[in-house]
What we know:
Blueprint: E1 2-6, E2 9-13, H1 31-40, H2 43-46, E3 51-54, H3 56-62, E4 66-68, E5 74-77, E6 86-93, E7 98-101, E8 105-107, E9 113-115, E10 123-127, H4 133-141
Parallel strand pairs: 3-10
Antiparallel strand pairs: 1-2, 3-4, 5-6, 5-10, 6-7, 8-9
Amino acid sequence: MAWCIQGCEYYCLKMKNPKKWSKSWRASKQVRKQRKFRYNAPLHARHNLIGAHLSKELRSKYKRRALPVRKGDKVKILRGKFKGQVGKIDKVDVKKEKVYVENMAITKKDGTKVFVPIHPSNLLISELSLDDKMRQKTLKRK
């Protein structure tokens, strides 16, 4: 909504169909539109935002630099508290754009263990989970 001052009274001017999300914002130079694209993206579009780089061996084998992460992939953590450790992906949270890796947990004061959410950009995929036929097709596509 936009506001307009006329004399000392405020009139509310209603905008016509404000878009919440559009594919065209991906190509924008403006940071605010890029941020809006990520925050308001539907889940099917967020799937492509949770990609991680492939290791050198996988990169040469599949001729691709990155892939969206999946449950069961073996990853190496490149940044943060668990830097250098290797583990399997336990859970992928598409809505929050976070990944939970096995054995990467912290102990709370009451003794319970909680998995640490890691952003996929801080991961390196070292082994792919090829259980899904659609994923095999995407690897053969390029």
